[in-house]
Structure to design on (264 residues):
């Protein structure tokens, strides 16, 4: 698919991971460009100009950790690289991504349909199985794997496998000001409010379940002194607000072109 570029985010020195995902993509005949991940683990966050700790505490109920900042900057970096290319779409994989079918073959079919359904679509999450508040659109079968394209009104978490439109990547980069949430939380915040986020169920890409190195120690850090006493209340308020907005968008959602159901 000449209009789609594939990028793999990989931390310098993580050669085993790079070799593993290279082998998986080679099996499908997919070439890719490696993007060196930003290692946020050693960062002194007080020196990170685009990190807003006070906003993070209000929105997340805790401070962020270096690995989360590094992951966010890694996704900004790959979006910027995509915008420098002439490609129309970008498939972005973290190096623990595990495709269950040929993702490019799936996207060759699904992106044509999605451009008709929603010409303003921004981002597709193709690597998360926890999908809630969505509108089914069209089913596909690729290499024995069956999945359905859905409008993801409550945008799913994790960023192991995502697909950008040029407009989505442009907005992500140009609207970036301050980091106040991990990148997957930010995508949910953004796309739940604006709409134009999509996904597949079941997902065509999962993970090897290996711990992300650019997020290494993040979980441990979040559970120690980073959390504020109001963390639980803040989280529940955030989830309830996002779900309410998602339900409203689901009720109002009308595809530009009514999809034809059935296997593609």
């Amino acid at each position: 698919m000449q209009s789609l570029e594939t990028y793999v985010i990989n931390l310098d020195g993580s050669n085993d991971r790079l070799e593993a995902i290279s082998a998986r993509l080679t099996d499908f005949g997919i070439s890719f460009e490696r993007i060196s991940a930003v290692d946020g683990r050693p960062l002194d966050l007080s020196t990170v100009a685009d990190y807003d700790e006070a906003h993070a505490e209000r929105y997340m109920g805790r401070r962020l950790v270096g690995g989360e900042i590094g992951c966010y900057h890694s996704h900004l970096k790959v979006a910027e690289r995509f915008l420098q290319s002439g490609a129309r779409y970008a498939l972005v994989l973290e190096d623990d991504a595990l495709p269950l079918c040929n993702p490019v073959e799936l996207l060759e079919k699904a992106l044509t349909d999605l451009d008709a359904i929603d010409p303003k679509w921004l981002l597709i999450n193709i690597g998360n199985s926890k999908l809630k508040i969505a509108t089914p659109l069209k089913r596909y079968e690729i290499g024995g794997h069956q999945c359905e394209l859905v409008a993801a009104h409550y945008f799913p978490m994790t960023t192991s496998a995502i697909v950008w439109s040029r407009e989505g990547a442009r907005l992500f980069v140009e609207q970036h000001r301050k980091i106040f949430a991990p990148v997957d939380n930010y995508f949910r915040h953004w796309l739940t409010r604006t709409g134009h986020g999509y996904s597949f169920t079941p997902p065509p890409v999962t993970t090897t379940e290996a711990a992300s190195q650019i997020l290494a120690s993040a979980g441990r850090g979040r559970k120690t002194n980073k959390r504020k006493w109001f963390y639980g209340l803040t989280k529940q308020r955030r989830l309830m607000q996002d779900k309410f907005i998602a339900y409203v968008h689901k009720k109002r959602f009308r595809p530009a072109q009514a999809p034809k159901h059935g296997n593609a």
